[in-house]
Amino acid sequence: MSMRFTAKARRGMAAMTIAIGLAVGVAGCGSGDTGDKKPDASASPSKSGGSQASPQEGQSAQPLAELRGPDGLSLKIMSAQRDSGGFVTVNGQLKNDGSKDAVLSSQLTGNETEIMKNGQSFGGATLVDSKARRRYYVLRDTDGRPLTTIGVQSVRAGDTVPVFMQFPAPPATTTEVDFQLPTFSSASIKISG
C-alpha cells in the first residue's frame, strides 16, 4: 500500500508542478490588463487638450489645403507623409478664427462604436482615392483606439491646436487623395514620400 500511496503522491506533485508552471507562463505572457490601470503617459492627452502632432521633416510652411468647419473653425493640412511602414500620417493645425470658444462636434469622432467608446477624436476622417474608388479610414491600435489626436473638446477663440491622423497608405502610384472630415469641407491633398 505504501507503494501505491507514493505513486499517487508523485503524480499529484507532478500535476501540481505542471499547473503552477502553466499559471506562471500564462501570467507572464498575458497582457496584464486589469482594466483599472491608467494609460501610459504617452497615450494621455497633453495639457493643451490633446495629443500633439508629430513633426515631419520637410514639412512646408504653406498648407496643402485648408478646410472650413462650423463656428469659425478651420483645419490647415500641413503634410500628408507616406511612412515606410505602409501608413500615411496627416498633420494639421485646427484653428478657431471665431470670437467665441468653439466646442468640437462629436461627429468628428465618426459613428463606429469601437472608436466612439474611446472618447473625442478625429476618428471620422477619411482619405478617398476617387480613381481607384477606395476609401481609407483612420487606423486603430489593438485596443480599438483611433490613431489620431484625442481629447480635444474645444478650441479657444484665436487658438491653434496641432492634430494628426494616421491612415493605411494607398498604393505608391496614388499621390493625390481627397481628405474628408465630418462637419468640414473636403479638400484634395498630395501625399509625399
TrEMBL record:
Q: Which domain of life is it from?
A: Bacteria
Assigned keywords, A-Z: Signal
Compositionally skewed regions (Low complexity) per UniProt: 41-56
Indicate the secretion signal residues: 1-29
Query: Region (Disordered): which ranges?
Result: 32-67
**Name this protein carries in UniProt:** Secreted protein
Organism expressing this protein natively: Streptomyces corchorusii
